[in-house]
Amino acid sequence: MADSPESHFAPYMSKILVNQTELSILRDTGASIGLGSRNHTSSEDLKGETVWIKQPLDKHFTCLPLAKIELQSPAFGKIVTKEVIIDAHFDSGIYLLRNRRAKLIEEQRKTPNLNALVTRSEIEERNRGWRR
Hints:
By secondary structure, the chain is of the alpha/beta class.
């Protein structure tokens, strides 16, 4: 019995929420754009923009729509991006993550979440504590 593609790519895959649906993501270091499925995208997320894609083993170009995609994980928080959407019948349950987006996620993981905003009431509360 042959191994599944998921088992071959397991070291390069992880689970995240893509538009509120848990999916496996695969980082493709050669991809210049990410690929999501129409199964996990609403019509409101479509941006009205398209891109032309050409596969190395195909002579023809394919026109695909762009949509807003929300990626979310406890490791990096939430990122909203714009990616290519493929037809639902091509959905393999794997979100293809492009190289630049993966770098952004990696940077966000390294950046500590700090609350830099201090409200006036918080300042007043701190000052009252010092006066006591």
